[in-house]
Amino acid sequence: MRERRNIVELWKRGNAVAMATLVRVEGSSYRRAGARLLIASNGEYAGAISGGCLEAEVLRKAQWMVRDGAHIERYSTLFDDTADIPYGLGCGGTVDVLLEPADTAEFEAHLEALEASLRGERRRIITQLPEGGAKFARCVLDAAGSAVFRSGPAVIDASLPLYDEILAAPQRLIVFGAGDDAQPMVRMANMLGWRTVVLDSRAQWAKRERFPEAEIVATSVSGFTIERDDAVAILTHSYEQDREWLTRSLAAHPRYLGLLGARHRSALLVRDAASELGWTLERACAGLFAPVGMDLGGDGAEAIALAVIAEIQACVQGKIGSSRRMTAEMVEEQVTRGSAARYQQTQCAL
């Protein structure tokens, strides 16, 4: 997402000349289909379509290659001096790159769709690829499936080569808690191009100057809605705030919900939230990562932030493996152990 922001920012300067988009990959490739490289007339560029193997070639020849309009260029990343496809560089595959000039309505529609996605608006881009006699054409659809752009009278023919792409909105991370440990978490999320929201009822912590990268920094959740695609991290270090926001977050079913804190404290919070919602402990635990973050080792705010961001990224990408999760049995054990310890302290005091 950060790369997408950089591309849009460069486009806004008004001197773009061409766009290269990776539309097909055969075999191994450093980048997946959908990777982009925007090239400006002054030599500036944003994005990447490989690990550095192809960028120099495309940058050097981009304006010349699009002089007659959009076309497909094929590059081999297999190391083979005798190959008919140029630039074998040892990465292990073949890629098809769509090169399109920046002076077309299709290009403008492409960049406007990228910009809209960064605002949180879903877009689908269907591009008829200029190969096999097909004419270059494009259709852009909004989240409801309505066309916001269509290439003149050209009709997208499903029997012709197409590149169909969904532009999802950037991941949104909601951080409940504006303490010092939240700052590196927000910075790392910003590096990934995520949208970040920081909420904390304590005005001395929830300040814009403490979180310049955040989209929203607020002391009240009035009117604020947690969406199903959101990632939520709860780390206020205030039991009452954590209980309120854990309850609210569980009910919203975000794609990721993490709770910072010691196991016993977390167990008490889960028990209270489940009771308030009328849920079983099993149901509450199933929607929660606690202790929050992957077990990467290390100590301090930055290490915790890395563990949390890594776990969210894995969860969002469907790559989550063995994260630390609480179970109903663990909650009951921790609550019972804490109650027993308090009883023993009371007896000793007597």
Helix fraction bin: 25-40%
Overall pLDDT confidence: 88
What proportion of the residues form beta strands (DSSP E)? 15-25%
Low-pLDDT runs: none
Q: Which CATH architecture of the largest domain is right? A: 3-Layer(aba) Sandwich
Written as H for each helix and E for each strand, in order along the chain, the element string is HEEEHEEHEEEEEHEEEHEHHHH
Provide the structure class. Answer: alpha/beta
**Helix segment tally:** 9
* Cross-sheet strand order for the largest sheet: 3-2-1-5-4
- What is the CATH C level class of the largest domain, in words? Alpha Beta
Q: Briefly note the CATH topology name of the largest domain.
A: Rossmann fold
> What's the Cα radius of gyration?
25 Å
| Number of domains as seen in the coordinates | 2
Walk me through what this model shows.
α4 (182-191) crosses α8 (301-316). It is elongated and about 75 Å long. The chain is an alpha/beta fold. The protein is built from nine helices and 14 strands. It has two domains: 2-167, no CATH class; 172-340, Rossmann fold. The longest helix has 22 residues, at 328-349. 34% of the residues lie in helices and 22% in strands. Strands 3-2-1-5-4 form a five-stranded antiparallel beta sheet, with helices on both faces.
Which key features would you list for this structure?
350 residues, alpha/beta, Rossmann fold, five-stranded antiparallel sheet, five-stranded parallel sheet, 14 strands, 22% strand, elongated, Xanthine and CO dehydrogenase maturation factor, XdhC/CoxF family, MoCofactor_Util/Proc, XdhC_Rossmann_dom, XdhC_CoxI
